[in-house]
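Lab notes, practical 5.
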Amino acid sequence: MSGATWVSLTEQTAKIAALRATAALLEWDQQVMMPTGGGDARSGQIALLAGLVHEHMVAPALSATLAELATQPLPADQAAAVRNLQRDVARAIRVPAALVSELARAQADGFQAWLDAKQSNDFASFAPKLSHLFALKRQEASAIDPTRHPYDVLLEAFDPGTTLATLRPLFARLEEGLRPLIDAVRGLPAPAEVSGTFDLTAQKALHEQVMVALGFDTHRGRLDFSEHPFSTAIANGDTRITTHLYADDLLAGLSGTMHEAGHGMYEQGLPKALAGTTLDDAASYGLHESQSRFWENFIGRSLPFFRWLAPRIKAHIGADVAPEAMFAAANPVEPTLIRIFADEATYNLHILVRFRLEVALLEGSLAVEDLPAAWNEAYATTLGIRPATDREGCLQDVHWGSGAIGYFPSYTLGNLYAASLAAALQSELPDLWGQVERGEFAPILAWLRDRVHRHGHSAEAPDIVRAAVGDRDGVTDLLDHLWSRHGKLYGVSRS
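Output from the prediction step:
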């Protein structure tokens, strides 16, 4: 009996997956290909699809199927799918269809308003859209569960099981742990940048070679370009990543490509056989970020990686850049204004600022019109620097304009997961750095496929990481990694 019921479930969820894939394709097109004049029409299209997804999610037949399966003995993976879907359906049922459509439209409008405001450095033009989005997100959170803090409700959509009660002490512990390293190198000479002008066409060819070497399958994915790099999985066999190239900054663009390739390889490694059942999903956004940060930072900022990369830069771009120079340039410890360019040691302070501000915005203790001043003050207090413009301040990220409120902690959770995965990997692959220097990335990807990717959302992210690495502490692993790499580079010791 459970077999027939499970088949019925997969048929229903496959329709939902197809609608979501269509919406994802429209959103990708909006950021990559669509002319700006298509923004209004695109908002309506995305809103229509969001409404159709909601209709299917709240359909009585889906709830009845899940209820029937919940009473039957199931294999562990199917039981996990039922549990995940019941949570998603319960959230969907509580949100009115009109609010779902309004949110989808506001998110599409918000992205375009953010893009225009960033380009013109005009926060005032974006503020009404952002205020509307936060108001709608408060309504959504209240509809789902008025008894919980709205941030906890929204956070659950990205990292189930994580709450304000766990994040606040986590960020406090991280901030305290990072200070000694940041203070130890303050005032020391910063590593020299890799300067020059680098042809964008040649850079594109280099990036494509790097991502393929890492393991990104171009038969099931593609690379494009956007204002803000991102990745999206349209469907099984169609994973898309974007990057941003800089004529005067060779390493910044490459770092972004490796980050998004990490996301893409995770998507390509998920169990895609059962579309829409949640078994084919990442377990959390934090775990997704662990894969991108692992490749971007742990591998992509290492000296062995730059030893492999140097001759390829020479072949594509014609520049002789010493591996040691790239390693130093890629690993400064120096507070900067732009999150996506932040070094490993200060990156989580950028997330800390955003986490505290979005909680205040959601609670209403901070008004949207006061965000620029609050942002600038937070940067001055936390990182010791102050933005001169909103473009390099509160307008730099796409997330809030796209309605991703509660997403930012996923970056820090990803850094912590990545640190523990990297520590475990080093202990199990003794020749790890020799393999990296030789460009033998397949064993690394195979390890991640086995420990993380193949499990999909058959368990919650902390449980998947614990099974992969044992009872490690992510904060300790991250701090150990930072002192080992950056401390040695700067010649400072951990007291």
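Observations recorded by the TA: The chain is about 65% helix and 5% strand. The longest helix spans residues 2-32.
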